[in-house]
Amino acid sequence: MSVSIDLTGQSALITGSSQGIGAAIARRLHQAGAFVVLNHPNLGEGRTKADAESLASEFNAMRTNSAQVMAADVSDADAVASMMKSVKDSRGGLDLLVNNAGILRDRTIAKMSLDEWQAVIDVNLTGVFLGCKFGLEILSDGGAIVNMGSLSASAGFHGQSNYAAAKAGVEALTRVLSRECARRRIRVNAVAPGVIDTDMVKTIPAEIRAEMIRHIPLGRLGGPSEVADAVLFLCSPLAAYVTGHVLEVDGGWRG
Length: 255
Hints:
The longest helix has 22 residues, at 114-135. The chain has one domain: NAD(P)-binding Rossmann-like Domain (Rossmann fold, 3-Layer(aba) Sandwich), CATH 3.40.50. It is built from 9 helices and 7 strands, in the order E-H-E-H-E-H-E-H-E-H-H-E-H-H-H-E. The chain is α/β, with parallel strands linked by helices. The chain has helices at 20-31, 47-62, 77-91, 114-135, 152-155, 161-181, 199-202, 206-214, 224-235; strands spanning 11-14, 35-40, 67-71, 94-99, 139-148, 187-193, 246-249. The protein starts with 10 loop residues before the first strand and ends in a 6-residue tail after the last strand. Strands 3-2-1-4-5-6-7 form a 7-stranded parallel beta sheet, sandwiched between helices.
């Protein structure tokens, strides 16, 4: 007997989905049949806009009218509310919401500026809150939310006080929201990636990355598609009795 995941007829919004893990998640949900809304920050004619539009074109060439792009800064409440209204107008609502958008501003606490602290909190934590708050207004009963946590929330990586605090907050928010959404049969979970081979991780000095790999029992960095597979599972009927859970995808780092 074979088991497949079919999301045909469902609409999914993935924030920060122009690159890296977000793009891999969008690709996996699209492969499962979902219509995907690709979000990128509203920064004009930058790389994220071009990448999102290229990905949407790729998806629409594979399956007509199966993807669209929406720009919004997830840390801006008005922008997120407007994006959700646009999704409602164009798609009638959402079935799946993946709050993936995130940034890094690594620096030791002693050297971290207030702006570096606040920027990461605004995008990585407040952005998830806003996505959930306004997303719930258009999310179908029985739908699913997946928030992006991180190994950093528990590992305490050097120079990541802002990032770790934000991701720990996301995981706590996820557990609370899962209880609040249970009456609508909306499942709320988080995925906590370990060290994943993305452009963001490439900004970490090579010697620090090498030290990280030494802590991974599987002996390698994870791939974006491996995180995307975990998100796909949590979005699917196979996870119908899973909510309030943080699924670690870290190669065994935490054992």
